[in-house]
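the two lines:
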Amino acid sequence: MRVLITGANGFVGRLLAHQLLANEAICGHAIGKLLLLDARLEGFSTDPRLRLHEGSITDAAFVRRVLADGVDVVFHLASVPGGAAEQDYDLGYQVNLMASLELLDQLRHQPRPAVLVYASSIAVYGANLPARMDEQAATQPELSYGAHKLMVETALCDLSRRGEVDGRALRLPGIVARPRQANGLRSAFMSDLLHAYAAGEAYICPVEPHATAWWMSARCCVNNLIQAADMPGLAANTERVWQLPVLHLSIAQVVDALASRFGEAGRAAISYQPDARLQALFAAMPPLKSPHARAAGFTHDGNASALIRNALNLGTARKTSYAQTQNAMRKII
Amino acid sequence: MRVLITGANGFVGRLLAHQLLANEAICGHAIGKLLLLDARLEGFSTDPRLRLHEGSITDAAFVRRVLADGVDVVFHLASVPGGAAEQDYDLGYQVNLMASLELLDQLRHQPRPAVLVYASSIAVYGANLPARMDEQAATQPELSYGAHKLMVETALCDLSRRGEVDGRALRLPGIVARPRQANGLRSAFMSDLLHAYAAGEAYICPVEPHATAWWMSARCCVNNLIQAADMPGLAANTERVWQLPVLHLSIAQVVDALASRFGEAGRAAISYQPDARLQALFAAMPPLKSPHARAAGFTHDGNASALIRNALNLGTARKTSYAQTQNAMRKII
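prediction for all of em together
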């Protein structure tokens, strides 16, 4: 199998690459080549199956060269995050919308339709969510990021209906715990809270303790992406868009789990200065039922303790320290 | 006011141009220039307000020249019809999707946001409609035409939210009575039935008599397009997409109205050979409630008799003949 990851240098992309190389198979076959595409690709292993392609996904000729020998499975993760795309509309338009459409258009012309796993986002719903939510909730994006994700979902469904790609779009919640750096993601505070508590540092949380959000660890996210690819070939008229199951937790519940893992003393270092915009976008999330996605094999982390363990890549043993695992993470991916 | 119509040579475009020149004002101001854009523009009047721009809407540089002096109102009607776009995917992709996105992107950079009236389509819903339908019905396009219309709606809403255009998308049903020619529209049979009965000709109807469809005359459609432009400037967070009110009529009800207008004798010339695909796409339409659109001033034709009168451009007097009015239509638009 020839597998491509776009946005392979990103937080989720690196972990996905690592996991794919560790697994025995994808879609029932061994991985022959794993093509990685990103603007920069740094610190990857020397696994002979890897092929590194540094360049811009907005460069159609470059993408054509990457696809020249065909691909069987594509994980399309490349994306300008929501906050950054809102600030720089043109960049988001070129990367999130136009490059995705171009990738889809190039994949149409393969002799055999590729399995295309697309990282969509809960940003497609916008902030005006129903009090009890399920997988049929209406979409009304409130950021260009969400609008473009929704448009690409629509294109993916259309080409899948035509039998030209075998697409599967997953609507991802904010994924934790991203590296602590400015990354243009409005949901970054969710990761920052985990890192700060684990490291025993002070943290000013921009949403209230009773604010509820949807949570998923990168480890769980990667498992879901691989599950999406591993599903058997879907018929043309199948539903192609899944709202992933999520953990619905308040900040207070997450802090309780952090206190349980890293000690009660850390609570005193967390203070709250709510930001109205973040509160509206990420912190008033209703319960979400996703029986359809669960039936298809998609999962959330299980509970708050497991979320923290998965998110910070801790073992189950209590003595694994945060610092040790963060160093280990840097090496393996 | 500088007003642009794309797809101006089309059936609806020509009637819209005629009506705009006849009206005193649009958006409360007199029309200074009416820019018409289409691949060909034939037989338009010599009204000094007209500016004819022949060229392809897929040519970004051409569109940029047309927009060079700015526009206040755009009616974006240019479109490859559903059947034709399904046959020639690339053509539909370039015209219905990419050219529309390019037009939107060019309009973003105007000093003052243009009012953009977009002719979307009921094709956004697909064939799997609920038994009782309203304006909140889920979208699930089953043709690339509908997928691309839906994507452009999403883009229009996003740029409107950003305050860069003042967009209004209308979901149009099949419009009658289109000229009798091969036009790539799967709903063409609805127009053909009207023309054939009015002309006293035999007609083989490809859906059953009890098949129900949504109907609107071109005259009514043009009034709705103008109504969409005439609405006051909408706030950024306003709903931008309207499902137009429609007449929900069976073929039998339409034939009854035709018989009432043109005589009972014509009934014998109508026979039925249902086509399963057309039947599924156009002839099992449920009742549709659209209180939101009605409150915003949008209308349907009223009843079957008025539909036929409007569609065939007949006067209210019984003695206006079909042949006379069809000849008159050719001259005025």
